[in-house]
Structure formats: C-alpha cells, structure tokens
Design a protein that fits this description.
2 domains; five-stranded mixed β-sheet; Udp-n-acetylmuramoylalanyl-d-glutamate--2,6- Diaminopimelate Ligase, Chain: A, domain 1; alpha/beta; single chain; about 250 residues
Length: about 250
C-alpha cells in the first residue's frame, strides 16, 4: 500500500488532532512511498530499528516515537544513529502516543480491560486518558495481583492489604501514577498503572486504596499489538508486533 494511504487511515482511526500531546503523532520520519511490511513495537529503540532492518520492513509503528517536548533537538549521538538507520534504509516511522492510550477499542487501556476481564464504566483524568470500572468477579487484592502477573507476564509491585476485597478499579497504562489521587476520590478499591513514585506509596497507605505498579512497558504492549493485528486484517499487509521486553 502507499504511505499516504496508511498515514491517512491511521490518522483517521487514532484521531490525533483531539489530543494535546507531548510529541507529534502520525508520520514522524518519512521513508519509502510503498509499504508492504510493517514492524510494530512499544518504543522506537535502536533494537527495534535493527529488527526492522533485518526483516526488510518499510515502516515501523510504535507507541513511543521521537521528538518529545523539552528534549535537546540536536541530531547527535543516539538520535543521530537512530535517524541514520531509518533514513539509510528508507523506513517510515509512525507513532501514536496519547491517541493509542485512549482509543476505545484498540487502545492500551481498552486492551488491558479486555485481557484482565474488567468492565469499563467511564473515563477521568487529563483528556479522559484514565479509565474506571468494575471487576467482572470481585476478589481479594492478592488474587487480583496474581491475575495481573499471569496476564502481563511479570509480578506487579503491590501496596495495600492483600485481603482487601476489590470490586471497583481504575487504571491507566504507562507513567500515570499522577492520577492516583483522582482515582481515590472516585471511590475505587484499587488503581493500576505502569509506574510508581515515592509519594504513591504514602497515598496508598493513608487512603487504604490499593496501588498496583505493573510496568510501563508491560501495560503498553497491547495497544500497538492490537493496532498491528487490525492493520493486517484491514489491508492484508504484513504487520508484525515485536516485543522487546523492558523491565520498567
């Protein structure tokens, strides 16, 4: 397919214009005008770029791309090597950050709910990025933690009473510990995100609301994976998700 066709379709699907983001969404680096193979991943690291080169990809599709606000914009060092790899191999880079967190079906938070069996009821937080809902079957915090570990393939950091009954839960993938206070105010029994800060522990202890830090990478694998599968079904194009694990 043509690059313009893919970009126009993804921009229409992800609706990046609705978000005030920290980076440009959509086509970040222009490559070949013809696309027959896409490699998808969470982050456009050099390791993912190298995989794309090895597999003769025409495009890379990620959640975490380049050109973040506040970064040093000089093309030196790591940035130079990454851009040189893309340009030398005529590979397009497409990235969707907040749009991929928020998408109601293919997004990170929607996919977390689907895999963990949670029932979404609403949104909250900046630009309605965070989600709130209920467990399909209430359980104790220890059982919830075990299920998260089983589904995500890693043990979350958990703060709270292991015997606490969990019925209502809020969640937001990635580095969304800043929404914990809002979740507490909404009356949930637990909140899950990817990361945790020092003050998060005190909030959990003093509020009694459980906090689960399940990993930034681990909680954001499923949106881009679902998007890759969607593109394969929609266009019959080869779009392969490559999971390069990150412990954070």
């Amino acid at each position: 397919m043509k690059r313009e066709e893919l970009v126009n379709y993804l921009d229409g699907l992800m609706a990046p214009g609705k978000f005030r983001d920290y980076c440009p969404n959509g086509l970040q680096v222009e490559g070949s005008s013809d696309i027959s193979r896409i490699v998808a991943g969470v982050t456009a690291s050099q390791a993912l770029l190298d995989v794309a080169v090895e597999r003769h990809a025409d495009a890379i599709l990620v959640h975490h791309g380049y050109f973040w606000k506040g970064e040093d914009g000089r093309v030196t060092g790591i940035r130079r090597k990454r851009l040189a790899t893309l340009l030398a191999n005529d590979i397009n880079l497409l990235a969707y950050h907040l749009p991929l967190d928020a998408h109601p079906e293919l997004g990170n938070n929607a996919q977390l709910a689907h895999r963990l069996g949670w029932l979404p009821e609403g949104r909250f937080g900046e630009q309605d990025i965070a989600w709130i809902g209920a467990l399909a079957e209430p359980c104790e915090l220890s059982a919830l933690s075990a299920k998260v570990a089983n589904v995500l393939g890693r043990q979350p950091m958990v703060f709270g009473d292991a015997a606490r009954p969990i019925r209502r839960i809020a969640w937001c993938s990635g580095g969304a510990q800043g929404y914990f206070e809002q979740a507490i105010a909404l009356g949930v029994d637990a909140y899950l995100s990817g990361e945790i800060s020092e003050q998060t522990v005190h909030l959990a202890q003093e509020s009694g609301v459980a906090y689960l830090a399940a990993g930034h990478h681990a909680t954001e694998r499923y949106g881009v994976q679902a998007l890759a599968e969607h593109l394969t079904q929609q266009f019959g194009i080869t779009c392969e998700f490559v999971d390069l694990d990150n412990p954070v």
